[in-house]
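FW: tagging you since you asked about this chain on Friday. Here's the raw sequence from the shared folder, copied in full. Didn't touch anything.
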Amino acid sequence: MILADKRVVITGGTGSLGKILTHRILSGELGTPKKVIIFSRDEAKQHDIRISYLSKKVVTDEVIYRNFMSILEMRIGDVRDYADVCSVLKDADIVFNAASLKQVPTCEYFPMQALLTNCTGAQLIARAIEENHYPVETVVGISTDKACKPVSVMGMTKSIQERIFIAANIMVPKTRFISVRYGNVLASRGSVIPLFHDQIRSGGPVTLTVPEMTRFLLSLDEAVDTIFAAVRQADPGDIFVPGAPSTTVLNLARALIGGRKIDMVVTGIRPGEKMHEIMVSEDEIYRCFKRGDYYVVRPMLPELRREGDLPGPGLEKEFSSEDVVLNYEETVTLLEKHNLLI
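HL: got it, structure written out here
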């Protein structure tokens, strides 16, 4: 069991993904860890997670702040700050880097802030491990489909983050740096489904960017499944990509509205958005192969190539959200499966 008796750090661990990732790690499905450390800047969200965890453990109020005595530890700090990063990584075995600025329009308005969190944060993790010889076994970078052929600041910074972690395998060969890349996570904070839910509860209208726009969709648990598959199977520099379904913004809105009489308004594409997302580009298909339910994109650096890497394309074309789009009925079924219809 790969996480058994390990010290696990989750940067940005108070986000939607971080909370589910923490829950799954603490469940012991990859082994029971010695310690799980949530590393973030948000004390209020850390407190909420602490209370949620303690309520499940049925403990009394007086032990709420025995932070360093618990398997689940909260650590205030910033992935942009080298001293903070060193402090949290010095005893770590496994690091999940979920710290991110991920709102596409926000990153367009504040590109330097996206650069500092998404790129500098990743670089400081690699630097801390290299310079201080920390015995970190694995670092997992959480990327996005927007990193593939990026047009947005968010996608560009995530693409650079992928490259930072790939190159780190050469500079820090005792640590395995890998990444996962996936699309929109259903009902994650800041995503379109909670927005549509709020608009529907308010009586509308529901705002669509472009009706024909397509997006990959997967649940938080499926995102964590991808992360765990990478932890178990990835070689240094690999990027794991799930074979996720996609749907149009219009079908998503129609499915959530159901039989209600609610208007839809087209607002136009937002800053930095694409009409269709791509998980694996046409240039990457020559370094891509299928492993179970996942595509694996191998690194382009020759030092990280393995004997037996495929000489030809692992896909016939790039993997785009435009390829196989769920129809209305299939979109309803997907939302029902994840209890997202209201």
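FW: The chain has one domain: 7-337.
HL: agreed, and The chain is about 35% helix and 20% strand.
FW: great, closing this out.
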